[in-house]
Design brief:
about 375 residues, alpha/beta, 6-stranded mixed beta sheet, 5-stranded parallel beta sheet, 13 helices, 13 strands, about 40% helix, about 20% strand, elongated
Length: about 375
Amino acid sequence: MTVVWINGTFGAGKTTTARELIDLIPNSTLFDPEVIGGALTHHLLPAKHLAEVGDFQDLPIWRRLVTDTAAALLAELGGTLVVPMTLLRQDYRDEIFGGLAARRVGVRHILLAPAETILRARIARREVPSDLPDGETRVRQWSYDHLQPYRAALASWLAADAHPVDTSALTPREAAVRVAEAVGSGAAPLCDIVQTPEPAAETVASGVLLFDEQDRVLLVDPTYKPGWEFPGGVVEPGEAPARAGVREVAEETGIRLAEAPRLLVVDWERPSPPGFGGLRLLFDGGRVDAATAGRLRLPGPELRACRFVSEREAAALLPPVRYERLRWALRARERGAALYLEAGVPVGAEPPGTPRTVVSVGG
């Protein structure tokens, strides 16, 4: 079972090409995630909630439903799902494609990329519903406003991630033929995403904090889920948590710790559907000298990047619950005593708050 994801900005011809494509790929079905966005914004979510986001793609429920619906359609119908949808944020791409990979669904990522002059001409000719007040002006301007994010995505990650098809001089049928040829020949390969099955129950996960000579902490950027993370992963059945952390550090960075790291934090993560929660442990892996830090090896399919960051920088990269876990792990490291947390809040220790003595990571 596979997904052919047709990406491109407004005016690229995604929907018309996708409709032609299902005639060219045997046992294929069209799935437009715009339907889910429309249901959420017009029927399911309250206006107050929608007022907090600028685009339905910014709704976590939309991204989750796209993944779940695509997987459910493939389970029901089999074959190939053709999905025409603009994705310009890499973290949203990671979340959706990674979720599909976790369900053993491969994704072939296609980018329809006509010249910008062609895009602007198509936007100018775009038909707009007549019943929208000032609809023509607003819809066209909205389309033009998305050209800059498209250029930024193209320059930073999109061109390298997707197989490009220049549709400047192609009809939708001709574009579909090009896409079908790329899919059939393997020129548009399956995205290289780590297939991490979603847990079916609570899990135990071990993370290891590694520090550079300025006491900055190492974070990694996974390709299969949004947000930065600590080196580490899920503890396998029968595996000691500290040894799991050592194993994950070696697999993810190439650094081999000589001994089991010291425990800093045990944090109970409450279930948050669809997640099951569980225990999250953070260990102190010690300092990494400059020479070793310069030789960090990242597995391409699993991690996109890594960097040493100060505590303040980590606050901007980590989700709130992970940042609180890090914050208290750093305090435990300073004091030489492990802490037990529940949902990022210390239990059975001094009340949460700013410690009397704070040593800033990274100065």
